[in-house]
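Morning run. Coffee first, then this:
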Amino acid sequence: MAKKSKDARIQVILECTEHKTSGMPGTSRYITTKNKKNTPERLELKKYNPILKKMTVHREIK
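And here it is:
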């Protein structure tokens, strides 16, 4: 059998950065996983925001 890793892959929440400045109610969040060995810094991806109806930058939150 293969060895078990020490939980290198963790679950993170991505939150829209443009939504707060738009003044609209609600928020756009996505849940995904990342490998903390390969990407120790905060994750930043372009995802679709259904409230703003466009692609926006989503950053990892604690």
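DSSP finds one helix and four strands in the chain. Good start to the day.
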